[in-house]
C-alpha cells in the first residue's frame, strides 16, 4: 500500500488521526470522528487552531467562551450544500455533542491566538465552479485565505463521474512567494456510491515521488509535495475535503508545465 494512503481505523469512533508526526511533515493535522446521537468528543487545542467541519449530521459545540447549539444541515455530503463549521483558536478547547448521528472533521494547524471562536455558516461559504468540460468541479471555500485564521486553509470539492479534479496538475511545495507557496495538504475522499473509488496521482518533478493510488471511500491521501490530480471513474461521484497549511497562509500554486496547454481556450 502507498505510504501516502491512510486507511480509516474502522467504521465508527475515530476514523482518522493524522498528525505532523505520523505524516512526517510540519503543519497539517487532520482527524475524523463518526459519533452516534448523544456521544461526545472533547479536546484542548494547545498550540493548534482548529476548524471543525460538520460533514454530516447535527451537533452542539462548546468552547471555553462560546456555545454553538444545534449546528448542521446536511445528512449526506452528496446533498452538495455547504456545511456548518466552527473555528476554534489555539489555547482553547472544544466539546462536540452529537445531536444526531454525526461525522465531523477536525482540521488543525499552528495557531497564533489572533482570532476568536466563531461559527462559519453555509451562507458564509463561498461557492464556485472551476474548470470546464471534463475538468469541471464545484468548490466550497470553507476557510479561504480571505477569511480570518492563522494557518489553516479548508475547502471541499465535488467532481462528477468521468471528470478530473485538481486538474490540470498543480503543486504548492516551494516557499517561493510570490510565485509559489509551500503548503502541505490532506485529501479526505468520499465516493458515491460508496463501493467506488477515485484515482489520485501524486508526483514531483524529479519523480522521487510518483504514485498512482486507487482511493476508496473514507480514505485520506497525504500530499507532502508535488502535483496531485484526481480522476473520477464513470458512474461515481467524488467529494473531498482539503486541509492545507504552511509557513505563510496563502495559496499560490505552480502548474505542471507539460500540461499547461490545457488552460488554452479551445478554438
UniProtKB/TrEMBL annotation:
<dbReference type="InterPro" id="IPR021120">
    <property type="entry name" value="KduI/IolB_isomerase"/>
</dbReference>
<keyword id="KW-0413">Isomerase</keyword>
<protein>
    <recommendedName>
        <fullName>5-deoxy-glucuronate isomerase</fullName>
        <ecNumber>5.3.1.30</ecNumber>
    </recommendedName>
</protein>
<dbReference type="Pfam" id="PF04962">
    <property type="entry name" value="KduI"/>
</dbReference>
<dbReference type="InterPro" id="IPR024203">
    <property type="entry name" value="Deoxy-glucuronate_isom_IolB"/>
</dbReference>
<dbReference type="GO" id="GO:0102482">
    <property type="term" value="F:5-deoxy-D-glucuronate isomerase activity"/>
</dbReference>
<dbReference type="InterPro" id="IPR011051">
    <property type="entry name" value="RmlC_Cupin_sf"/>
</dbReference>
<dbReference type="InterPro" id="IPR014710">
    <property type="entry name" value="RmlC-like_jellyroll"/>
</dbReference>
Amino acid at each position: 500500500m502507498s505510504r501516502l494512503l491512510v486507511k480509516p481505523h474502522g467504521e465508527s469512533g475515530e476514523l482518522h488521526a493524522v498528525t505532523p508526526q505520523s505524516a512526517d511533515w510540519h503543519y497539517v493535522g487532520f482527524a475524523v470522528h463518526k459519533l452516534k446521537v448523544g456521544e461526545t468528543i472533547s479536546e484542548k487545542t494547545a498550540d493548534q487552531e482548529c476548524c471543525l467541519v460538520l460533514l454530516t449530521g447535527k451537533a452542539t459545540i462548546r468552547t471555553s467562551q462560546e456555545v454553538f447549539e444545534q449546528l448542521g444541515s446536511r445528512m449526506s455530503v452528496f446533498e452538495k450544500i455547504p456545511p456548518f463549521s466552527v473555528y476554534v483558536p489555539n489555547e482553547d478547547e472544544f466539546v462536540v455533542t452529537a445531536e444526531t448521528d454525526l461525522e465531523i472533521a477536525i482540521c488543525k494547524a499552528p495557531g497564533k491566538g489572533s482570532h476568536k471562536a466563531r461559527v462559519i455558516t453555509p451562507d458564509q461559504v463561498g461557492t464556485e465552479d472551476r474548470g470546464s468540460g471534463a475538468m469541471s468541479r464545484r468548490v466550497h471555500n470553507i476557510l479561504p485565505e480571505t477569511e480570518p485564521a492563522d494557518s489553516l486553509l479548508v475547502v471541499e470539492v465535488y467532481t462528477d463521474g468521468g471528470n478530473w479534479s485538481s486538474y490540470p496538475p498543480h503543486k504548492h511545495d516551494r516557499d517561493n512567494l510570490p510565485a509559489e507557496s509551500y503548503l502541505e495538504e490532506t485529501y479526505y475522499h468520499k465516493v458515491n456510491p460508496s463501493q467506488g473509488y477515485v484515482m489520485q496521482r501524486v508526483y514531483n518533478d524529479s519523480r522521487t515521488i510518483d504514485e498512482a493510488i486507487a482511493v476508496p471511500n473514507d480514505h485520506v491521501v497525504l500530499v507532502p509535495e508535488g502535483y496531485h490530480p484526481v480522476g473520477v471513474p464513470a458512474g461515481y461521484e467524488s467529494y473531498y475535503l482539503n486541509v492545507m497549511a504552511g509557513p505563510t497562509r496563502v495559496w499560490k500554486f505552480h502548474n505542471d508545465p507539460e500540461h499547461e496547454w490545457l488552460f488554452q481556450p479551445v478554438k
